[in-house]
Design a protein that fits this description.
By secondary structure, the protein is an all-alpha fold. The chain has one domain. The longest helix is centred in the middle third of the chain and has 34 residues.
Length: 199
Amino acid sequence: MKVLDHLEEYLIALLMAAATLITFTAVVHRYMSGVDIPAIQDTLIKINMSWAQELTIYLFVWMAKFGAAYGVRSGIHVGVDVLVNRLEPKNQKIFVMISLLSGALFTGIVGTLGANFVWGMSQTDQTSSDLEVPMWIVYMAIPLGSYLMSFRFLQVAWHFLKSGELPKHDHAHVEGLDVEEAVDAASDHDANQKVTEKL
């Protein structure tokens, strides 16, 4: 599980970094091509970056599909649980399990439909317009991301069944930053500031 968790996180980060870098390079290329310096302008005009927008879109689609699975695992997805929270604990558990299993079923169905679509697409010669990549490779994000999301729903359901806990995302938490250390550092800074003002 740790290997899959890290692979998922690294893949999302890699896709996001690649999309950002390609977009930045394409924008700089576009504006630098308009600079009235003949040597630079001639060199940049020869570089074809018409593929950048298409690749960025595909990278963001893949990132969104795998990011959705990460959201299920880490509890980031928004949920409306006002009615569920008003139920008795026993009934709450039943409704939470129904919703998790429904999520697993739905994403499993989407993954299967996506796999059938990709299989049909792989039997054709259809390619993307700029990159000329086979379109079935682009659409592989649907079954892979959906099946991973379905697996994450089942994983959360199993954990909830055993422990009664759902993953919760703390929006105030910053990775690598300890809250107590941050509070101590802030109070030390305030104390130093007061001493400096008195001097």
